[in-house]
Model the fold of this input.
Amino acid sequence: MPKTTKIFLSEEDMPRQWYNIAADLPGGVKPPLGPDGHPISPDMLAAVFPMNLIEQEMSTSRWIDIPEEVLALLAKWRPTPLHRAYSLEAALKTPARIYYKNESVSPAGSHKPNTAIPQAWYNKQFGIKRLTTETGAGQWGSALSFACSLIGLECKVFMVRISFDQKPFRKLMMQTWGGQCVASPSNETNFGRKILAEMPDTPGSLGIAISEAIEAAVSDPTGQTRYTLGSVLNHVMLHQTIIGLESKKQLALFGEKQPDVVIGCAGGGSNFAGLAFPFAADKIHGAKIDIIPAEPTSCPTLTRGPYVYDHGDTAKMTPLLAMHSLGSGFIPAPIHAGGLRYHGMAPLVSRAVEDGLMNPVAIDQIECYNAGILFARTEGIIPAPETTHAIAATIREAEKARL
Amino acid sequence: MMDLVGYDKFLSGQLTKHEMSEAEIQKLLAEVKATHPVPQ
Done:
C-alpha cells in the first residue's frame, strides 16, 4: 500500500465552533486603551466595526459557534488537506515527521477567506453595505473582495504601494471579484495626501494603508460603511482557529498523538494563530509543544520589538493595543513577503509570547527563498514568500532533529 | 503566480537581505520604549 500523503476531513467533520484563547491565556487579555488611557467601551468602536463583531472582539468565551451560513460558505473549499512532507524529509535526511496544512486551496489562495467570509457575513447581518480595508501583498484584499462578492457587499481596498507595484495581478483578482483597489498612500484620503506630501517616494506600509481604510469608512456620510482588518484583532484570530482545530483531527488520523513543534509565519499574526492557538491550549494545560512564530529579520516585531501599548495604524486612529511593536511609524524594508511587513503583532499572539507559550525566530529573505526553492523542488508547491519563513524555520528544526 | 517576482529576483541573484543593523534596531527600540506605555 502506498504511504498516506494527505488527510482530508469530510464537511461533516468541520469544526462547528471557533476557539477563543482569550479564555485561557495565563496573563489575561489587556483591553485596548482610548486616548485618555482608559479601556475603551464597545460603543467607541461602533463607527468602525459592526456591534456583532465588537462583541466577538471583547469576548472571553472559550468557544464561539460558527453560524451555519458561514459554514456553508467555508465548505466551498474546507476542510483543507493536511499533508505529510515525505519528499522534504528525505531531502533533509531528517528523522522528523513534517506535516503542512495546505490553506492555498481556498479560492483566494490563502487562509484569509477563513475570516473574510465571517466578517462580511456579520457586517451584512448588521445592515452594512460597503467594506473598506487595507492589504499588503494582496491576499487579504483578494479574500475580502471574494467574500463581498459572495455575500453582496461593495469592497474598497487600499493596497500598500510597493506590493501594488510588485504584484499587479492582485488588483485584477480583486476587480474580478468586484472589489476596487488603489495603491496606498493614495490621494483619496486626507492621511494619504499628507503622507504623499511628506514622502512622495514612500513604498507605503500596512500602518499607512490601515489609516486610509479607517478614514474612508468613518467618513462615509451614509453610515453604511465599515472597516475590516485581515489580521491582528482578536476576532480575526478567533476565525482562523478553524485551521488548527481541523489540523488536530487530521494529525490524529495520521496516527500522531500531538506535535513536538508547531510553526507558522507571523506578520500580523492571524495565519500563525489560526494554526497554533488550538495547540497552545494544550500547552497551557501541560502539553510539551514548542510553538514557533517565524518573522522576517527586516521586520523583527516579536524577536526585537518591545511589548508596549501602540496604535495599530500610522495615523494613530486606532485605540492603543497591548502588543509587540516596532512603532506605528515604522516602515519595513520592501521585502517580497508583503504580508509580513507590519509594525505590530496581534495582541493575543503578543500576550502568548509574553506568557512564555511561544518562541519567535527571525529569518532573512535569502534563507527564506532558499527554503522556498527546496520546498518547491521536493513537495511541488511553490510557497508564497510569507510561507517561506515558516518553511525555513521548519528546516532549521528538522536539521536539529538530525543531531 | 502573483508572488513569483520574488523568486525571479532570487534566482537571478538580485535579492537582498534587507536586514536592519544593530545600531538601527537599538535606535528604534529606544524611541519606542521612551514614548510608549508598558502594559501592567
